[in-house]
Amino acid sequence: MTEFNSAPKLTLLPAVDVADGKAVRLTQGAAGSETSYGDPVEAADNWASQGAEWIHLVDLDAAFGRGNNTAVIRKVIKNTPRRVNIELSGGIRDDATLEAALATGAKRINLGTAALENPEWAAHVIAEYGEAIAVGLDVRGTTLAARGWTQEGGDLWQVMERLEAAGCSRYVVTDVTKDGTLKGPNLDLLAQVCARTDKPVIASGGVADLDDIAELRALVPQGLEGAIVGKALYAGAFTLAEALDVAGD
Q1: pLDDT tens-digit readout, 186-224
Q2: How many CA atoms lie within 13 A of 114 on its CB side?
Q3: How does DSSP classify residue 8?
Q4: Which of the following is catalytic: 17, 45, 59, 175?
Q5: Which residue in 226, 232, 231 sits closest to 52, CA to CA?
Q6: 17 is annotated as an active-site residue
Q7: Taking a C-beta distance cutoff of 8 angstroms, is the pair 163, 197 a contact?
Q8: Would you call 45 a catalytic residue per the annotation?
Q9: Whole-model pTM?
Q10: Is the dihedral of CA 135, 138, 139, 143 positive or negative?
């Protein structure tokens, strides 16, 4: 246990996914699989009060191209204590949506579909904003998923090679088949991604219990920086305080 306690810390990012103005969780990213968990502002405040340093905030309607929750997203960020950093994702595909996202006060913006479909724009944004930009790599097997996970977006390793050349500062890796299932993260995939970059990697999808967090923390020396935790927290599998303790906070 002493060896584990001395392992580098894993940063946890509790998720607040917003659809139709409510905090929800999806199963395998499928539209229509939403389980509602109430007011997003209250959800974010709850994670902040339990010690979160980061919150992963997603506009699901924008990601699916069916409208947006801009006003709610702004309200969540405005009401979250300044000591808590926001990572914002969902529907950021051009200069206008990027500028609007940055204007919310979010610390970091996740590019998803745009990084796959518009590589030249993504490379320009990465060059201009550096650490403020992360790229979400959402995969089934080694095939990327785009457009709210409804379309294929190319080969993971080819896209990563291009993003590495562009100087991408951080990757958020989601195994779509694991997301929202509480069946454990895809540790092999995460280890493979970490092996192909010296940039930090954030894991997303599948965390079910505290053992999963311990296993993810064991990947920190390989380059894993953090983990997004969603459904397990909302379902009460453990508290954020318990998870932060296992993660080394």
Answers
A1: 999 999 999 999 999 999 988 999 999 999 999 999 999
A2: 26
A3: P
A4: 17
A5: 226
A6: yes
A7: no
A8: no
A9: 0.91
A10: negative
